[in-house]
Amino acid sequence: MLIKCKAFTVFEIIITLVIVGILALIGITGFREIVQNSRAVTLSNEFISAVAFARSEAIKRSTNVSVCPAANANGLACGNSGNWSNGWIVFVDSDNDGTINNTTDRLKVHDPLENGTQVTTTIARITYNSAGFASSGTGAINLTAPGCTGTNGRQVTINSSGRTDVVEIGC
């Protein structure tokens, strides 16, 4: 008795592999965009969290609290306005001079940002007064994660009432 075996031809296997390859390429491209969007959302949420923390501490402590870019990776002093890539520092700024007078004034320090992350702004520091209003540092901060494409960037706007707003922006 003869048993018939059914098998795939080489042509059918090649066509199947081509289709699987195309679907994988489409999936990887979509996944990359999801990852970039997630990085931008995380970065903007971390920044907004620091700003909200500064605002609440200013109200709670009845004094000025500021957020500034870190001068270097150790987060001991404020840096210049255009470079937030070393992270940021939330500190008590009771004399409103924008400098950290002692280490106990530092309330929170954010780690340096991942290489390729871009933070674009002219804001040197954000200061909240005891009523929770932004007495300095109103404006926009643009944040983009490494490899950003499309509209996966974020713009955080801080208004004079101290509130923040986030919108998607192009990379």
Produce the secondary structure layout:
Layout: H1 10-61, E1 65-69, E2 88-92, E3 106-109, E4 118-120, E5 126-128, E6 134-136, E7 139-144, E8 153-158, E9 164-169
Antiparallel strand pairs: 1-2, 1-5, 2-3, 4-7, 5-6, 7-8, 8-9
CATH C-level class of one domain = Alpha Beta
Tell me the number of helical segments per DSSP (H or I, 4 or more residues long): 1
**Biggest sheet character:** 5 strands, antiparallel
Determine the CATH topology of one domain. Answer: minor pseudopilin epsh fold
Q: What order do the helices and strands follow?
A: HEEEEEEEEE
Task: Explain what this protein looks like in three dimensions.
The chain is of the alpha+beta class and 171 residues long. It has a domain at 53-169: minor pseudopilin epsh fold (3-Layer(bab) Sandwich), CATH 3.55.40. The chain has 1 helix and 9 strands; from the N terminus they run αβββββββββ. The protein has one helix at residues 10-61; strands at 65-69, 88-92, 106-109, 118-120, 126-128, 134-136, 139-144, 153-158, 164-169. The strands form 2 sheets. It has a 5-stranded antiparallel sheet, covered by helices on one side. A 4-stranded antiparallel sheet has the order 4-7-8-9, with helices on one face. The longest helix is centred in the N-terminal third of the chain and has 52 residues, at 10-61. The chain is elongated and about 95 Å long.
